[in-house]
């Protein structure tokens, strides 16, 4: 697990982000920007801070691993936005930033005097990103929790067994997807500002992000009028593309074309299946998926999942065992992906352990400058900076 005590300048060096985000979608976005060199000031509620500071177990060194997973490379400032002096400090931080990120309920930042119109009036180049659950109009009062959006946005209806209840994904996937969409929007807005000098507001909702990410399932409905249903581990449009049983444990089998299917049949000792009219083409295999699975089951049970993985991968048939996270990280280690990093932390006797940023840039790689902050760790430092003269043309006083 490498450590990075002296990181190089990142692609977003010089970009200052005022982060009013909480929980996952917004903090995930700002952490990715921080990894790429942005200076992120995380503004938190005194006493409790980001909700995820209390979301444990599990913990590491007394801190919730949920919070630790999305808040490295940031400075924490504890400010009570209901207090006039603290709100003024928050306004100065935000008005002097390149990017503001917030995910309060719609209207909250405006009531605090921290909305886009308030800040862009003194900083026309500001990029202001609002992350909501269900948008700023009809859904403004709905709470934007990932589970609710997975349920109400259709993801749970296509996840799980056919006759079972709707099932959520095993991670807050909608929050993560929304953070990525928001990041794309912010980078596009920064690029526009570079060309024109003009900032803009970026709005991304959890529901909108999920519907976009449902991809082929959403297209089946929008373009084809088909309402998809849960199919367990099967795919609605490809076969065999599901979990099958090997001799010792399940195996994921993802056959994407006829050539791969023919290679699978050869390795199973049943080449005739590839020319059987029921299975010769993908549409035919989809139409006869139960018969197909019955034909594949016996030979597949003759070897272990690892043995099939080695044999089938060698002939171009996509497959793999179902790993837990320990095995998944071990696999990434063996493949040279370096999925873990250690960040030097003077508060601890060992580096803070983190999941690596997966973006690889040759000239400006992601960097790990600081461990996730303690609540309010940098309050005095950042407030002292506010007393310095503002950059020429920048805001100097709050309204």
TrEMBL record:
One of its GO terms (molecular function) is CoA-transferase activity. The lineage of its organism: Bacteria, Bacillati, Actinomycetota, Actinomycetes, Kitasatosporales. It comes from Streptomyces mangrovisoli. Residues 344-399 are annotated as: Disordered. The keyword Electron transport does not apply. Gene3D superfamilies: Crotonobetainyl-coa:carnitine coa-transferase, domain 1 (3.40.50.10540), formyl-coa transferase, domain 3 (3.30.1540.10). Signal peptide: none annotated. InterPro entries: CoA-transferase_III_domain, CoA-Trfase_fam_III, CoA-Trfase_III_dom3_sf, CoA-Trfase_III_dom_1_sf. This is Carnitine dehydratase. Keywords: Transferase. Residues 375-390 have a biased composition (Basic and acidic residues).
